Amino acid sequence: LQDRLTVVRFLLLLVKEILGHWLVGGLVLSGVCASLANRYLILHSVHSVAQTVEWLYAFDIHCNSFFVSFLLTHIVQLMILPLLLSDGLTSTLCANALWALAIAAYFYVTHLGYCALPFLTKTEYYLYPVVGVVLLYVAFAFLAVAGYRFNMTRMVVSFYFG
To answer: How far apart, in whole angstroms, are the C-alpha atoms of residue 50 and residue 52?
Structure first.
């Protein structure tokens, strides 16, 4: 019975990760990014055909971006999990740095995907959330030094595995 429960919990975790984070998150982020590109970033020219960013292209960009962040937050994090789950300042800073790097990598790869389209201009707007990520990391680093430990890896592990 315990083995069946373990398999069921693993399958539920897999469904939550695939459907929740990759698919639903991808549908929302792809729609938002494609809409922003089509509304504000298209370079209009008298001598060119009207072009738009297709939603499937935006979803492909999400898949590429998600893969990089998935590698960092699931594969690399798993390999160094004992270090990240420790109770010290170093583990908190390393865990938060890993998550900040993963989120920044997501937005950087997203920027690269939209930058490849010649009819878009000012695609560096997709890098603006990285500034917020860096500011949050610095704020949480100061809080960690002050004794208020906000360890993102611990929060995610407790969310998934109770």
So the answer is: 7
Per-residue pLDDT for the chain (162 aa), expressed as one digit of tens each?
667 778 888 888 888 888 888 999 999 999 999 999 999 999 887 787 889 999 999 999 999 999 999 999 989 999 999 999 998 999 999 999 999 999 999 999 999 999 999 999 999 999 999 999 999 999 999 999 999 999 999 999 888 777
> Running DSSP on this structure, what letter comes out for residue 42?
B
What six digits make up the tokens of 133?
């990520």
Question: Which tokens in the block code for residue 107?
Answer: 């937005």
Q: What is the DSSP string of 98-149?
A: HHHHHHHHHHHHHHHHHHT-TTB--GGGGGHHHHHHHHHHHHHHHHHHTT--
Our measurement of the distance from residue 56's CA atom to the centroid of its chain's CA atoms, rounded to an integer in Å, reads 19
